[in-house]
Amino acid sequence: MAADAGKVDPMQQFQIEPLIGEAWEIGGFNIAFTNSALWMAVTTLLLWAFVFGGMKRELVPGRWQMAVESFTGFIDDMLEANIGKEGRKYLPYIFSLFMFILFGNLLGLLPVGLVGLHPFTFTSHFTITGVLAIISFSIVLIVGFWKHGFHFFSLFVPHGTPAPMIPAIALIEFFSFLIRPFSLALRLFVAMMAGHVLLKVLSSFVMDGLNYGIGTSLMVAIPSFALMIAISALEILVAGIQAYVFALLTSLYINDAEHLH
Amino acid sequence: MPQIAQLAETYSSQIFWLLVFFGVTFFLIGRGMVPKVMETVGMRDKQIADDLAAAQAARDAADEQEETWRERESANRAKAQGLIAEAKAKAAKTSEAKLAAAQERFDTQLEAAQSEIEAARTSAMAEIEDVATEAAQDIVNRLTGTTVDKRTARSAVKKALVNG
User: Fold this and answer.
1) pLDDT at residue B77, as a whole number
2) Burial of A261 by CB count in 10 Å (0-12 exposed, 13-18 middle, 19+ buried)?
3) Do A96 and B26 count as a contact with CB atoms less than 8 A apart?
4) C-alpha dihedral over A56, A62, A66, A69, to 10 degrees?
5) Residue-by-residue DSSP string for A164-229
6) B35 in reach of chain A (CB within 8 A)
7) Is the pLDDT confidence value at B87 over 60?
8) Is the per-residue pLDDT at A1 higher than 50?
9) Among candidates B8, B18, B6, which has minimal Cα distance to A15?
10) Is residue A57 exposed (0-12), middle (13-18) or buried (19+ Cβ within 10 Å)?
11) Rounded distance, CA A82 to CA B51, Å?
């Protein structure tokens, strides 16, 4: 990575580099196949392989089928709990969303740098998380207006609001509603970026500590390395939690659109 | 921060490839494969539910059969008890009749014996009269030397017997 410069740039891991088709364009917009696109492709491929392995459709499932079924069952239960039986029809979207983010997060944590590859976490880019959040938010808006028409605006007036409070409450609710896609996108982007920056900063401590001699090796490098191991474990947890939070919040917002308040 | 520094030149590529790959994920995996996985789960759940229902039905049927068996058993038992009671009653009646017949036979025998005794006594009395008459004639003859005819002696004896 950046070790050849003798100095670790914690931001370099987020650099997007065109791999092929640097000049590809659609309607004047550049669509170069970048490292980010490559990792999305790998995610899609692995996810396909994972789910395909669970498609044996056996009555008594094997381990792989069991694993796939536990993921679909997990999302199904979440939708059942948050939306009810109408939630079933959102299973394909929420499952795709959850698994795409989960696999992206986890693949970004893989130590593929050890074999000379350049790891990249596409969920640490707000262009990606932003588009996913906009898709989720669009579904909420479309479902809300489709099912309830203009009655959907009653979402901004919770039950039991005293009449004089309605304008103020409606305004606050309206803004909190508008902020949802931003919070959805930023939460995932920030969580993933922060974890990776922290790991990279600690790794620079380890390298610099080792370079300066035995004293700093003992005082700085080894504790930093131990901390890196712990934080790597934490990051694996965060990868799962953030994917879960994204899917959970999306299903909660869809519940608002399905049932209003 | 590359996310912002590279935004202008990379946003279109990022959005395009995200839509491509997330689209593939959604349409191929989410809509194509996940429903089949869920269908398998549903089929399994249904099979389990059906098996459980069948087991419950079999158990109910077994309970029912046991119940009818129990009823039949108790009916048979009651019938057997009835037969025994009837046989007992019949036996009691027969022995009673036999006893009665025996009693009657004893009674007739007793009566016959009594009438025999009575007859024997009467004849014995008659004989006593004859003997007494003869004895009285003889005594009178010896004492007085006179002969008393039999009729006189007999009436005297009869008088003495009635008084004595």
Assistant:
1) 96
2) exposed
3) yes
4) 10
5) GGHHHHHHHHHHHHHHHHHHHHHHHHHHHHHHHHHHHHHHHHHHHHHHH-HHHIIIIIHHHHHHHH
6) yes
7) yes
8) no
9) B6
10) middle
11) 31
Q: Which tokens in the block code for residue A214? A: 């035995």
Q: Where does residue A46 rank: exposed (0-12), middle (13-18), buried (19+ CB within 10 A)? A: middle
Q: Rounded CA gap, A35 and A41, in Å?
A: 10
**DSSP H or E run through A33:** strand A33-34
Q: How far, CA to CA in Å, does A142 sit from each of A86, A148, A245, A255?
A: 15, 10, 22, 13
Nearest to A253 by CA among A140, A171, A133, A154: A140
Q: In terms of pTM, does the model score above 0.80?
A: no
The residue of chain B with its CA nearest to that of A12 is B2
Q: A20, A22, A29, A40: best mutation site toward chain B, by most B Cβ within 10 Å?
A: A40
CA A185 – CA A167 distance, rounded (Å): 28
Among A9, A14, A51, most B C-beta atoms within 10 A, so best to mutate, is A51
Of A153, A128, A129, the residue nearest A141 (C-alpha): A153
Which residue type occupies B30?
A: G
| pLDDT higher than 50, residue A3 | no
